[in-house]
Design brief:
This is LegC family aminotransferase. Belongs to the DegT/DnrJ/EryC1 family. GO terms for molecular function: transaminase activity. By secondary structure, the chain is of the alpha/beta class. It has 2 domains: about 1-30 and about 280-350, no CATH class; about 35-280, Type I PLP-dependent aspartate aminotransferase-like (Major domain) (Aspartate Aminotransferase, domain 2), CATH 3.40.640.10. It is built from 11 helices and 17 strands. The strands form 4 sheets. Strands 1-11-10-7-6-2-3-16 form an 8-stranded mixed sheet, with helices on both faces. A 4-stranded antiparallel sheet has the order 12-14-17-15. Strands 9-8-13 form a 3-stranded antiparallel sheet, with no helix packed on it. The structure holds pyridoxal-5'-phosphate. The site of pyridoxal-5'-phosphate has 14 residues, from helix 4 and helix 5.
Length: about 375
């Protein structure tokens, strides 16, 4: 029966069976079936809808308990969380910050807005995130340690201050190896964990292994606050300071207005935090449903020439976005065309950062694995279903 249907038609049918609908199927949409309305209504009735309120504190405490980070600082979005983390890490204008070319642009925008310059390192075939071997190779060739212990580019002028690995689609980066390279080269680690809430590296929550992490609660992420993010800080005191700079950095006083440093005013409104708190309660169920969905896709693609992207053996992925590797670029293009024309949304991976106008002059390595993913990868509908 299936013999006169194309592989793409079979995939469309399979996805429609999973979501039990003939309507358009998006890549990812939020699910609200718990206390969302109740908590959001509560903020309106209390008038505490803005940047002060009990849900902001509650949301931060919930994320701290869930991830095990020292201090979580709520922000307006994940991009802002990254910006604050880079600021707190001491990144300065003119510094180099290593990151991956295969990422969402927000990772690099944060580096750009520090006045720093990204260096694009290849990703690992295993994790789809920053490759520690590629990073070490680039440093061995291009960096040296000054007498004061700081890492510099070979020109002796540009400091290499930090690295931002990103846990792509929720799959954890090889953190032990990465941290070892960073220790050797005195480089601060800021994990972009925007896609990986609920993902573990060897039992530890992603975003808590480096000095800082950043999570996002944008509408398409595993849980949403409408918009929002948090900077995860390993050190509690640094976290308190980070909280201070996300406000207007006003010195505590009942009525005097005195600000002791430049603040970002990146605070998350209580209205959004209320939604986030309710979503935190649903997170364990979402994770289970996403794992189930990934299992179904894996089975569907087994024995075909399309390879389902599974979590690395050392980690536990949240399977935020399911992905497959197509046999070649033509197969990828055909599958994208067919599924999207039939109302099942699929998407290629982001264009490599080196192709974007603002980063076209940035340094990079060969990026051979990144290019492979760019040419072959497709993301599949990943909204949790029960
Ligand atoms: C979503 C995302 C962010 C930040 O997202 P916001 O939309 O600013 O909350 C940062 N990095 C990556 C990799 C992301 O996917």
């Amino acid at each position: 029966m299936a013999s006169n249907l194309s592989f793409g038609d079979n995939l469309v049918g399979f996805v429609r069976d999973i979501y039990r609908t003939n309507e358009f199927i998006p890549l990812h949409e939020p699910t609200f079936s718990g206390n969302e309305k109740k908590y959001v209504l509560d903020t309106i009735e209390s008038t505490f809808v803005s940047s002060v309120g009990k849900y902001v504190d509650d949301f931060e405490r919930r994320i701290e308990a869930y991830t095990g980070c020292g201090k979580a600082v709520a922000t307006v979005n994940g991009s802002a969380a990254l910006h604050v983390a880079l600021h707190m890490a001491g990144v300065r204008a003119g510094d180099l910050v290593l990151t991956q070319a295969l990422t969402f642009v927000a990772t690099c925008n944060a580096i750009f807005h520090m006045g720093a310059n990204p260096v694009f390192i290849d990703v690992s075939k295993v994790s789809l995130g920053l490759c520690p071997i590629a990073m070490e190779a680039w440093l061995d060739e291009n960096a040296f340690l000054k007498d004061n212990g700081e890492c510099f580019y070979k020109d002796g002028k540009q400091r290499i201050k930090a690295v931002v690995p990103m846990h792509t689609f929720g799959h954890p980066v090889q953190m032990d190896e990465l941290l070892a390279v960073c220790l050797k080269w005195n480089i601060t680690v800021i994990e972009d964990a925007a896609e990986s809430l609920g993902s573990l590296y060897k039992g530890k929550h992603t975003g808590t292994l480096g000095k800082f992490g950043a999570v996002s609660f944008n509408g398409n992420k595993i849980i949403t606050a409408g918009g929002g993010g948090m900077a995860l800080c390993k050190d509690v005191n640094v976290g308190m300071h980070a909280k201070h700079v996300t406000t207007t950095a006003k010195a505590p006083h009942p009525y005097e207005f005195y600000h002791d440093e430049p603040g970002f005013n990146y605070r998350m409104p209580n209205l959004n935090a209320a939604l986030g708190c309710a979503q935190m309660e649903a997170l364990p169920a979402f994770l289970q449903q996403k794992r189930g969905l990934a299992g179904m896709y894996k089975e569907f693609f087994a024995g075909t020439e399309y390879r389902f992207v599974s979590e690395p053996s050392y980690g536990h992925s949240n399977y935020w976005l399911n992905a497959i590797m197509c046999p070649d670029q033509e197969a990828r293009n055909n599958l994208l065309e067919l599924t999207n024309s039939k109302g099942v949304m699929t998407r290629p991976v982001w264009a490599l950062m080196t192709k974007l106008p603002m980063f076209k002059n940035a340094m990079s390595d060969e990026l051979s694995v990144s290019k492979l993913f760019e040419e072959h990868l497709i993301n599949l509908p990943s909204t949790p279903v029960n």
